Structures are given as structure tokens and as C-alpha cells.
Amino acid sequence: MLRSLYSGVSGLRNHQVKMDVIGNNIANVNTYGFKYGRALFQDVFSQTVRSASAPGTAAGGTNPAQVGLGISVAAIDTVFTQGGAAGTERPLDLMLDGEGFFCVRLNNDLFYTRSGNFYQDANGDLLDAQGKHLQGFMGPIIDSQTGAELTNGFADLPDLPDGSTFDSKYPGYTVTAIDFTDPAWKDTFNPSTDLMNLTIPNCFTGITIGQNGEISARYVGDGKMYQLGKIATATVVNPGGMTKVGNNLYRDTLNSGAPQFEFPNTIGHGGLVSGYLEMSNVDLARETTEMIITQRGFQANSRIITVSDTLLEELVNLKR
User: Concatenated DSSP letters for 18-69?
Assistant: First the structure.
């Protein structure tokens, strides 16, 4: 009799966990870049009342007789299906159409996100909503009209209208030393040192971002469009193995696999869409259905406890 009580209790506890997951999904139905979770159940230890027996000459074999002792949570997954597109007409709102994550850095910590709402601060740095730097590569600097690469990067830009050079007005702006024309550039790539904070100096206007992550803007010194840098994206073998750390951020783990860095719209990495944000992949119809099923499961398990208690009461009253 007590076994049914414990089974009922395990059912209550674990249906509550599933309801917690559903509640979090529904709460984040309008969270950009959010990926829904699901709770999966499994049965637990079963007590063997009678073991199986082999067939004999006189009688056939018998199956085992076992009584289960309830359920437990087998897994709480994060499902990384593509969310819908929400148009914003804002060039720094970015959506990845396909696999991959944006990379953002705070101090020396690297995080990954599907939420692409980015902003510029007073220094021109591209940041997420919490002030973490969007990662990529500054340079090579390319004249968008001719396709010619500026040999010395920012230093080769024409003088500004006030007569000052770029270097004198914006000291410290450097470009990456990586040669992206060499197919082996990733062999020695170190994300801790080679990924850069993306910065667009305020002498550039009209920022545009292409599907391959190329950032271009118009230089006030000559009115030309220049390609200034590229946004980097990362993929992992097992996205479900990443851990959520809040603020729409993930970190890689031992079971996610090491991140592989590339540019958007390359093999295995989704294309970048400027002016759009990825909506939550929560399906309200599915979550509402799951909520009803979970509610009924919780209700049924509570009845197991009350009925088992009634049976125990009858057993106690046998002596009267």
C-alpha cells in the first residue's frame, strides 16, 4: 500500500518540475532569441515480486512480475529550432538564419547568444543590452567601390574635413593581423586573443551589415563606403549541451564541444539578416496543450495519494 503513496508523491514532484519548465517557456514567449525547454520523464526502480523462469518440458516459461515505484525526470532539454523573424528596420538588430551563435565578451569571459539586438556606445563599440562587446575582427579595411584593401588599415584613410588625420583623431585603432585569404587561418586561431571588440569610429555613418557579417559604413573624409570588419559566429557540435547563464546567454561545456569560429553564411553557420530579430521558438499552442496534460497528470497523482490514504484508513479500521 505504501508503494502507491510513494509513486504518487514522485508523480506530484516531477509533474511540478515539468510545469515549472512550461511556465518558463510561456513567460519567455516574447523573449528574442529564446529557445524553449522540455522535461522528459522516466520510470525509476521496479521491485521484483517474481522473477522470470525458463520454459521447461512440463510447463512454459513465465514473465517477471514487477511493481514500479514512480517516476523521475530523465532530462530537461533546450530545443534549438529556428525562431520566426521580427522586422525592426534597425541595422544593428541582427538575426542568424540557421546554425550558430553571436559571440560577446565581458572582460575575459566569452559568452554566446542568439539574441541579436546590439547597440553603439559613445566610443562606437558594438555592445549587447548588458554592455558586453560583440566579437569579430576589425579589418581588413576595404574600399567598397574598388574592392582595394588599404595596406595600412585606418592609417590610409583620407584626412578628415577638419584637416586632421584619422590616426591623430582616433589613436589606437588597429586591424587584425590574421590573413583571411589563407585557408589555414583557423589552425592557429585563439579566440581568447584573436577575437576583437567591434568598434565603428564616429567619423563613419550609415552602418550596413551583410549576410556574411561584413560591416560597412560611409567615411566622412571622402564620402566613400568602406568595409571595416566582420562579425564572428560560433557553432558547437551539441548545442543542447550548453548551459544557460541568464540574459539570453550561453556558455560552452564539456558536453557541448569546443566552439568553432567562422563568419556568417559559411558552411555550418547561418546567414546574417540585418533589420530583423529572431523571435522565441515557443509555440503557445503546444505549451498550452502540455500544460493541460501536466495538470491532469498532477491531478491523477494527487488522487493516487488520497485513494491510498483511504485504503490505509480502512485497514486501520479493521480492528474496530
Answer: HHHHHHHHHHTTT-TT---EEEEEEE--EEEEE--B---SSS--B--EEEE-
Q: Quick one: which of 290, 320, 253, 306 has its CA closest to 39? A: 290
Grid cell 586573443 in the structure block, residue = 193
For residue range 132-156, list pLDDT tens digits in order. 999 999 989 999 999 999 999 999 9
Grid coordinates representing 55 are 520454459
**Cβ-based neighbours of 219, under 8 Å, separated by 6 or more:** 157, 158, 203, 204, 225, 226
CA 24 vs CA 33, 156, 294: distances in Å: 14, 52, 14
pLDDT value at position 320?
67
Indicate the SS3 state at residue 11: helix
What does R_g of the chain's alpha carbons equal in angstroms? 29
Cα dist from 197 to 13, 108, 126, 133, 211, whole Å: 46, 12, 8, 6, 19
Within 10 Å of residue 133's Cβ, how many Cβ atoms?
A: 21
Question: CA–CA separation, 73 vs 11, rounded Å?
Answer: 10
